[in-house]
Amino acid sequence: xxxxxxxxxxxxxxxxxxxxxxxxxxxxxxxxxxxxxxxxxxxxxxxxxxxxxxxxxxxxxxxxxxxxxxxxxxxxxxxxxxxxxxxxxxxxxxxxxxxxxxxxxxxxxxxxxxxxxxxxxxxxxxxxxxxxxxxxxxxxxxxxxxxxxxxxxxxxxxxxxxxxxxxxxxxxxxxxxxxxxxxxxxxxxxxxxxxxxxxxxxxxxxxxxxxxxxxxxxxxxxxxxxxxxxxxxxxxxxxxxxxxxxxxxxxxxxxxxxxxxxxxxxxxxxxxxxxxxxxxxxxxxxxxxxxxxxxxxxxxxxxxxxxxxxxxxxxxxxxxxxxxxxxxxxxxxxxxxxxxxxxxxxxxxxxxxxxxxxxxxxxxxxxxxxxxxxxxxxxxxxxxxxxxxxxxxxxxxxxxxxxxxxxxxxxxxxxxxxxxxxxxxxxxxxxxxxxxxxxxxxxxxxxxxxxxxxxxxxxxxxxxxxxxxxxxxxxxxxxxxxxxxxxxx
Length: 489
Fold this sequence. Notes:
With 489 residues, this protein is an all-alpha fold. The protein is built from 22 helices and two strands. The chain is globular.
């Protein structure tokens, strides 16, 4: 089996199992043992030709430890706690790396000093986030876009001397993975302090203190943050302590194998964290038959296209997961005459109304920009030449038959006023807008990128250092002046 066939097989197994589990259980209360089939798939992922065993061990061991620990602590997960399940691993890994590498810990101390010296910048960015100065933003974007935490930390660290591998590890911890859950809440302490009547100096000091503590005591900070957010499913402190004991040897082996620290802090969060793609919230979404059909058919397009076109994919890192799922999602939207610009205009106007109505809402992580970029990418692919790519990605022709043959998607009159079912499919597809990674297939991307990192273990793959052609920049071009994507080298 070639490495490309192996990676495509892993993608199909992970995503197929998730969709199958959701479909089987969507009318039942979620139980932790519903993760069992996905765990088996992850544990069965083998080392392919030229791949680092240490990298794939990080993924497998994290998955095994997570399932074992959570299952021993609880039978179910409170839906509001689900997003934090992928934030419990990185604080543990950071503290282990501090133990194993004194120079890395010293670099962390330099970062903390740089944070202390950047209070004015921190205050400015926190206030901009509070008032929505950049428009909709994704705070933990994988690219240094305006309003992202990565954008802020690129500037904070600009004059801080440390090894490039350490610098990239810190970048990874405020973008692709989370040093703590506070990464998704940046500005919260400042806003709360101001609302309580404190002056801007005191509020800034509180925000800066939290950002420093995030690196100095990540496990303690994570536990305190989840306590403040009302996490009730299990004791996160106990989980992290047990997880640390379980993965310590695997992390030590990865360090000895010279796996890049940016990969070491990230892969366990993928192996353990994406179990949350099976949970009560997605069960509730998929109680809607159209939503279930959309998730199922988009997955079908992904798997069919990759399997039929694997001979045309020359290198494993060229496997176009997001492009295929984006094209499939936009293909469904186009059935009723909607475009990405329609949705972008809607979301942008909604953002500014919401900013005036419920200002604090802007301090929660907003994935709408990612959803809009996702749709824009799909629209480009399905549009005809010369504007688009005419349903092809390179030499790969997208197989839309899982959508065309899906009886539910092709019968929207069953889910609307039968005489004019013109928005039924759109309304169901928009149920994924707040978390597009169900459609974009975050678990597929995670296992795919883990495989890529196993081929290049000594190189940091993420975050991305190029312009992502943000959809919102078409409506707010001045945002681009504040983007640091091209500077992230």
